[in-house]
Design brief:
The chain is an alpha/beta fold and about 475 residues long. It has two domains: about 190 residues, no CATH class; about 160 residues, 3-Layer(aba) Sandwich (Rossmann fold), CATH 3.40.50. It has 20 helices and 15 strands. Helix 10 crosses helix 11 and helix 19 crosses helix 20. The longest helix has 24 residues. The radius of gyration is 26 Å and the shape is elongated. The termini are far apart.
């Protein structure tokens, strides 16, 4: 109980502290996130750069810095929230006339009303949504909020009490599913955080045109009980001040349609302005579901909504948005050994945007043939190559594949500052700069560079990382076709 007493004491102090002083604390402690977790900083900057390709580097950094400060603001709010009065909460949350009418018509205590599933995104002031019953002077339908329990029983109880003191009831994500269903049977409201990382139980979709897994729980509830799907956001207007936004999702009451519509709504919301973009939790690994080495080169899941989403968005194919760089040998003849591997990767991961990197212009011929999305020509000197790759580190490649067997290429991958660098070694010595060792490349038996043997080594190694098997006929056709070119 000592921790709870400290939290309550600190919360009371924060609740009465002047807001200018709290803003100074957020400005001072926001940058600490980058010092404590530099990998999270890179991840957030990479996600922002890929989500907003039209924004300049300066804009991306400005959004990240503001987002880091708002995360500290969110943490202070969580601790202080139980100690605000109803009048204080009303001053913090603005509700316009149209939203007030929506609350009365949709969430009012009418026994004939339809049940509602309220979808909530991870915005920095979303904690204030538990105070919605304080905003009106008339009774609302009972509201249940599904939340992820905390392993510590004391902290879990404290969170439960602090979030439910203003009129909502919290349900554990592990044990509260049946209670949520009974609430919808009684035509009540059930709220769910819908944009959390879903683990292996989610459905395969794209968000900001990048592949991820999404929870279908809100959609399943809406479909089963014919509930109205509503999205709710607290648009930040100042320190601990927000405007409540409610929007009914324009979709069928189907689990898949609700899931897709909710993410499309959130993407539109975040794209509306830099200020809104800075309000989401970019530090959490939303797109990390297919990042593990063991499944990096496979895009299969038991619940796949990509085809349905392509049809909904009128896309002919999956956008190639995931940046993957391939460091290739200088010689075009040697690089031909990797053509079957590159083609297999493109077939297996239709979301990969490949960048070919080499010191020879053959990569631009490969670009014309549609083998990649971009190319980077390196200078002949090794140290100059490292300098070029260091300058491109803010392109934020998600994965680097070092096909070039030289030590200089392996070290060049490190200069890109990519956290996932695949490569094979020749002999028993590990290559400096490679952190995802795929094993030893097969020997060519003293016959020099044997394209068939090299490609087979790489394909076999990547099959252990999820790449579908490639037939020998397909491998031979790719290499033969290259050598027959004029």
């Amino acid at each position: 109980m000592g921790v709870i007493r400290v939290l309550n004491a600190v919360g009371r102090l924060i609740a009465v502290t002047p807001r200018p002083l709290l803003r100074m604390i957020c400005y001072g402690f926001g940058p600490i996130i980058a010092w404590v977790r530099p990998s999270r900083r890179r991840q957030a900057l990479a996600s922002l750069s890929l989500a907003f390709p039209d924004y300049s580097t300066k804009q991306i950094k400005r959004i990240y810095n503001e987002n880091a400060r708002r995360l500290i603001e969110m943490g202070l709010l969580v601790v202080a929230m139980p100690h605000f009065t109803k009048q204080a909460l009303r001053r913090m949350i603005a509700v316009d006339g149209a939203t007030e009418r929506q609350i009365r018509e949709t969430f009012g205590a009418d026994p004939q009303r339809q049940p509602v599933v309220l979808l909530i995104p991870h915005l920095t002031l979303s904690e204030l949504l538990t105070a919605i019953p304080c905003l009106v002077d008339y009774p609302l339908s009972p509201t249940k909020v599904i939340f992820r329990p905390i392993p510590s029983l004391q902290l879990d109880r404290w969170v439960h009490e602090s979030r439910s003191r203003h009129g909502v009831e919290l349900l554990s994500r592990k044990l509260g599913f049946n209670q949520a269903m009974r609430a919808l049977e009684r035509r009540e409201t059930v709220a769910v955080l819908f944009d959390q990382k879903a683990g292996n139980s989610g459905s395969l979709i794209t968000f900001f045109d990048r592949v991820c897994l999404a929870s279908e729980l809100p959609g399943i509830l809406a479909e089963k009980y014919k509930a109205i799907p509503f999205a709710a956001a607290l648009e930040r207007k100042g320190f601990w001040r927000a405007q409540l936004r409610l929007e009914e999702l324009d979709c069928q009451r189907d689990a898949a349609e609700v899931t897709l519509a909710a993410h499309e709504w959130l993407q539109r919301y975040l794209c509306a302005s830099e200020d809104r973009a800075a309000d989401w939790l970019w530090l959490h690994d939303r797109w990390g579901s297919f990042y593990k080495p063991i499944q990096r080169f496979a895009l299969k899941h038991k619940r796949d909504l990509l085809a349905q989403q392509n049809e909904r968005l009128q896309r002919s194919a999956l956008p190639r948005k995931e940046p993957v760089w391939c460091l290739l040998p200088d010689s075009a003849k040697e690089a031909a050994a990797f053509l079957p591997v590159i083609e297999a990767i493109r077939r297996a991961r239709p979301d990969f945007a490949l960048t070919l990197v080499a010191a020879d212009a053959y990569i631009f011929e490969w670009l014309k043939q549609g083998r990649a999305e971009a190319g980077l020509l390196l200078p002949p000197r090794k140290w100059a190559r490292w300098w070029v790759l260091w300058r491109y580190r803010k392109s934020y490649p998600a994965t680097v594949i070092v096909f070039d067997p030289s030590s200089a290429a392996a070290l060049g991958a490190w200069f890109l500052r990519c956290p996932q660098r695949f490569g094979m070694r020749i002999g028993s010595r590990r290559r400096l700069g490679i952190n995802k060792d795929l094993g030893c490349m097969a020997s060519t038996g003293g016959a020099g560079w044997n394209a068939a043997t090299i490609s087979q080594s790489w394909l076999s190694a990547l099959e252990r990382c999820g790449l579908p098997a490639v037939s020998p006929e397909s491998r031979g056709k790719s290499i033969t076709k290259f050598h027959e070119q004029p």
